[in-house]
Amino acid sequence: MYQASNSYIRTKFVVRIVVVKIGNIELGEFPLLLAPMEDVSDPPFRYVCKQNGADMMYTEFISSEGLIRDAIKSRKKLDIFDYERPVGIQIFGGDEDAMAMSAKIVDATNPDVVDINFGCPVKKVVCKGAGAGVLKDIELMVRLTKAVIKSTTKPVTVKTRLGWDEKSINIMEVAERLQDIGVQALSIHGRTRSQMYKGSADWTMIGAVKNNPRIKIPIFGNGDIETPEQVLDMKNKHGVDGIMIGRASIGYPWIFNEIKHFAKTGAHLAPPTIADRVEVCKTHLLKSVEWKGEKLGIVEMRRHYTNYFRGLDHFKETRMILVTSDSLPQLIDTIEGIAPRYEMQGA
Questions:
Q1: pTM
Q2: What is the model's pLDDT at position 5?
Q3: What topology is assigned to 21-265 in CATH?
């Protein structure tokens, strides 16, 4: 006769932590990626973003034709540094041979990832049959991607858009075919090329790709992310593996750590003080001068000052000094003087 036992089995619930990987590169549970942005995502900017929590960096996009011609500006964009790893170098082009040759050049600089841009909507890129222009010809996209994969030892990833326009949204086919030929992660901007940066990003389509049973590679969402709440919402609603952040990080690299803190605690980090903004802006300027030389470093930093000090009252006079001065000592003095002046005013 069976007799019930007083003993019982303790069931242990094991929470499985899924680490997102591109090839063998581990990025953590829910990585935050810095988007490749032309004239923005250079090494000085990547430095301050890395210091403030970005998990993976991408360079500005680089013309395959420019690399082959040995164009100085294109070659300069290949500069990467160990402190920013993992880092991907992004290339674009519409010719298979040029993409293959440029991939070999990129491979020699030893990035962690080679990324292909099939998403840039700018007319001068699209007119060359590159960037988002390739969305009109998936067969060409596949050939270009195969050419890159065959020419590098690194994992190949792709950044793209939903389609050319609302009548030709083909991101599902694009994702499946790119995965099938060996692409190891896909970043999707939730707009078509015809939208440029207008309207709202459609995250439902990004989520549909992620939740397609055929898709096994990481899917990163991109578009209109400005707050930690939005990130958590997109993660929970659409199941994306991570978020790629672009414009919201310009002048505000703190966004990466703010998102991570909110995800862990449900509370907001205190926003950066004026002193914090001064310190990061100064670091950005010094890194810019260190990498580009004093003259060019000063000039190209001018586009960032308004973003770092957005919202400060009566800033016009200070801004005029920052965007016109060619003197590094004057610029440093001016930047360092911002915090004391506004603290005295109670800003």
A1: 0.89
A2: 42
A3: TIM Barrel (3.20.20)
